[in-house]
Design a protein that fits this description.
- The complex is a heterodimer of chains A (99) and B (275).
- With 99 residues, chain A is an all-alpha fold.
- Chain A is 47% helix and 0% strand.
- Chain A has three helices and no strands.
- In chain A, helix 1 packs across helix 2 and helix 1 packs across helix 3.
- Chain A starts with 12 loop residues before the first helix and ends with a helix.
- Chain B contains nine helices and ten strands.
- The radius of gyration of chain B is 19 Å and the shape is globular.
- The chains are: A mainly alpha (99), B alpha/beta (275).
- The interface between A and B is medium-sized, with 28 and 26 residues.
Chain lengths: 99, 275
Amino acid sequence: MTSVQNSPQLNQPKNQKAARQITKQLITLLRGIIPNYEDGFWHADTALFGAIAEFDSMALVTLMGEIEDSFDISFDDDDISAENFSSVTTLTELVLERS
Amino acid sequence: MFRIIRTPKQIRAHLLFIAPLFEQANQTRHHVTRSAMNAYHQGIQSIVFDHYGTGDSQGELIDASLSLWQQDILKQLLELKKHSNQAVYLSLPLSAVLLLSNEIVQQLDGVMLLQPNFKGKRFIQQFKRLALAANLTQSHNAKEAVTVAKPIVEIAGYLITPHLLDELAGQSLTKLADFTLDSYWFEWLGGAEVLSLGRAKQQEEFARKNDKLWVTNIDDVKFWQATELQVASTFLTQERVAFSQIVTYKSASNKALNAELQQAFNPKVAHELKR
């Protein structure tokens, strides 16, 4: 579940539009938490966990809380995985699943 | 107890800064110092301290309890009231509101709430998630790893008793009786953002308990979340406005005070919350 093309959820036009909006909002949240990157750094394919030094456990949990507040959704503790937080796209898919 | 007290020549009010819990204390320390200095320059005695077992205060965190922390706050308030008839306020950022009790509230003239989180259960859930997330990063930073050796829990380097976590998880606004305090609520909300349902519910619940609530939205960085030092200048400016209101509290008539507050603190939101 790491690319938009391979995701059945994101193949539908309606979901694609929702995914774009979610991705945009996620990037806004990420920029707030990790402010020391240029705006152009952030996009759907930006790798997160294991790729950005600042994306540590604190940043990950902070992001989870912000996402829950912003999207009015709840994550399970099982959602804390390297796969779900590997990139902006995988995170978008997770938000879509929980919405 | 480690305290930093800034006392102006003429004290016009007292402001006790309550540190939020665990990592949030570190994340807010820089701003607390700035706020305390701003308060001092406006004639407000500011007191910044570390809870028992945290920062530079004595004791170990594993020996701390909610009631111990609350008693420390209460003692300081009673001491202030004993020697001064000026207004006494608390500054409560983030999880610091989880330390409120009815006994503490009874000693206050007002509170300054910075993105308060009254939901103890949610706060502890997030805190415990740190341990789960640390497991993912274990290979990157072994120090963050969680180890559980009952009855002590280690999360993100903090050694805590499960009892303290349970006490904090049990805290919520519903445990407080209705009160009447000048309450300044600073809510971080971007200009284009809509207040989330969860945050709106907390504001509404607080407004039901206390009819003297003024809310102002802060369109600035959430400095406590950022992975590098950030300063929320907009917040500091708005906070100074609130400080100026505090020091005029005793001399201004309620009507005049309310008019000024509504001008500075988003009258629409304040009005809606009061209904």
